[in-house]
């Protein structure tokens, strides 16, 4: 369907000519060829042609902007509900990597004998320091009797007769056991050796100075002393310095 529009006083070869133009009804479908064809008018046997530009300018024609079609409600839902996610292959790769890591790391955690040896060394050092502090606080000699065969040691306030002090944590006798003799976490640790100038007992006097105690109870100033603890193939040596009783572990 078309409509007839009149261009008022179009300046052609004859300025008085009024050219009727026929355009399509939809302005968006107007082309230069349709305008030129519609602008041809016979005048005294001679065709008169108005350029497409002048015809559009006289008509006040403005091209409609081309926009994307508005999606339907279903299309909008499809686009708005689209979310990024992991593919099945990516998920399987993550599961495989986690499985390999757990198979390698978990067995090593359960068999970290170096950590167990360090824990045993800290335990022995803490008990030796406690005995030294007790000797200074109570101004009485305190003893630590090591029994490597029985895999244990005791903190005592008397050597002979033996008087075992009370553990402030457990409120029981201050006896620390290792290996098969223990029922706690120290059952995986071992008391390897204890040597204080050839003796197996260490004592501290009222000033906190370390003493080497013989089997008959006689004590002398410590020259060198060490305790070796371990777990599995790992071991740590605790050294007791003379005069001060300073402890080092390596």
- The CATH architecture designation of the largest domain is 3-Layer(bab) Sandwich
Q: Which structural class best describes the helix and strand composition?
A: alpha+beta
Task: State the order of secondary-structure elements, H for helix, E for strand.
Answer: EEHEEHHHHEEEEEEEEEEE
Instruction: For the record, give the distance between the C-alpha atoms at the N and C termini, rounded to a whole number.
Output: 103 Å
Count the helices. How many? 5
Q: Tell me the major beta sheet.
A: 7 strands, antiparallel
* Strand residue content: 25-35%
**Oligomeric status:** single chain
Q: What is the percent of helical residues?
A: 25-40%
The CATH superfamily title of the largest domain: minor pseudopilin epsh domain
Query: What's the average pLDDT?
Result: 79
How many whole angstroms does the radius of gyration measure?
Answer: 51 Å
How many structural domains are formed by the residues?
A: 2
* CATH fold-level assignment of the largest domain: minor pseudopilin epsh fold
Total strands: 15
Q: Flag low-confidence runs.
A: 1-24, 39-50
Shape: elongated
What is the CATH class name of the largest domain?
Alpha Beta
Structural description of this entry:
By secondary structure, the protein is an alpha+beta fold. It has two domains: 2-59, no CATH class; 113-249, 3-Layer(bab) Sandwich (minor pseudopilin epsh fold), CATH 3.55.40. It contains five helices and 15 strands. It has helices at residues 32-38, 52-59, 73-80, 88-110, 113-138; strands spanning 2-7, 19-24, 41-43, 46-48, 142-147, 152-158, 163-164, 175-177, 190-196, 201-204, 210-213, 219-221, 225-231, 234-240, 247-249. The strands form four sheets. Strands 5, 6, 7, 8, 10, 11 and 12 form a seven-stranded antiparallel sheet that branches. The chain has a four-stranded antiparallel sheet with strand order 9-13-14-15. β5 (142-147) and β6 form a beta hairpin. The longest helix is centred in the middle third of the chain and has 26 residues, at 113-138. It starts with a strand and ends with a strand. Residues 1-24 and 39-50 have low confidence and may be disordered.
């Amino acid at each position: 369907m078309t409509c007839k529009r009149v261009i008022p006083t179009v300046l052609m070869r004859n300025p008085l000519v009024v050219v009727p133009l026929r355009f399509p009804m939809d302005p968006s479908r107007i082309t230069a060829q349709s305008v030129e064809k519609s602008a041809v008018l016979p005048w005294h046997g001679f065709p008169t042609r108005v350029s497409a530009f002048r015809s559009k300018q006289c008509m006040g024609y403005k091209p409609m902007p081309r926009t994307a079609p508005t999606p339907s409600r279903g299309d909008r839902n499809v686009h708005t509900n689209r979310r990024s996610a992991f593919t099945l292959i990516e998920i399987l790769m993550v599961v495989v990597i986690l499985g390999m890591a757990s198979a390698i790391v978990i067995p090593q955690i359960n068999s970290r004998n170096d950590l167990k040896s360090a824990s045993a060394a800290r335990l022995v050092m803490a008990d030796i320091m406690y005995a030294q502090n007790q000797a200074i606080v109570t101004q009485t000699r305190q003893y630590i009797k090591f029994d490597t065969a029985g895999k244990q040691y005791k903190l005592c306030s008397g050597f002979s007769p033996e008087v075992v002090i009370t553990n402030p944590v457990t409120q029981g006798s201050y006896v620390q056991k290792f290996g098969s003799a223990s029922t706690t976490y120290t059952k995986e640790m071992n008391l390897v050796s204890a040597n204080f100038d050839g003796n197996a007992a260490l004592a501290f006097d009222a000033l906190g100075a370390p003493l080497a105690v013989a089997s008959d109870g006689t004590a002398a100033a410590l020259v060198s002393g060490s305790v070796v603890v371990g777990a599995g193939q790992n071991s740590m040596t605790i050294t007791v310095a003379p005069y001060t009783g300073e402890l080092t572990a390596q």
